[in-house]
Design brief:
single chain; five-stranded mixed β-sheet; about 45% helix; about 15% strand
Length: about 160
């Protein structure tokens, strides 16, 4: 089955929430405050440019975890042109941590139109027309930064 994935509220825009949704109606939300905390951790590690790609990849991995089956093909909207290889690599790495045997052949990139259910779900959730519970910051940080010190910084 082909499952499209779209984003509303880009990850690098830290003043707004980010929503990623698939064409089956599943979605994941990270709020702006938590994005700023994660961004601060990347800045502390002197890798601020990795913030948007890694966070985007992790959120996609969480979304894939909700629907994973070995016959599924995930079509991602091209949000960050030129970074598709890095995004694919990060998604596979994060899915591996989540114990999901995703292969690179199951990830494709394409243009997701405004009529796609993935786009509609992401947009309506972003505009708060659908109720959403944000992802837990602690879980996100544990996957992005395995060291305990970072977890302490986020809780401060």
């Amino acid at each position: 089955m082909k499952i499209e994935i779209d984003q509303s509220g880009r990850t690098e825009y830290t003043a707004v929430n980010t929503v990623l949704a698939d064409s089956l109606g599943n979605f994941i939300v990270i709020n702006a405050k938590d994005k700023r905390k994660v961004q601060a951790l990347f800045r502390q590690r002197e890798k601020p440019r990795l913030f948007m790609i890694k966070l985007f990849s992790l959120l996609i991995s969480y979304l894939i975890a909700k629907t994973y089956q070995k016959e599924n093909i995930y079509i991602l909207d091209i949000e960050y042109p030129g970074h598709n290889i890095n995004i694919t690599h990060n998604i596979i790495r994060f899915c591996s941590k989540l114990k999901i045997p995703l292969t690179k052949d199951q990830i494709r990139f394409g243009l997701i139109g405004k009529k796609s259910n993935a786009h509609i779900t992401a947009y309506l959730t972003f505009k708060k027309r659908k109720k959403a519970r944000p992802a837990k910051l602690k879980e996100i940080v544990e996957n992005l930064f395995p060291k305990k010190m970072d977890r302490v910084l986020v809780n401060a």
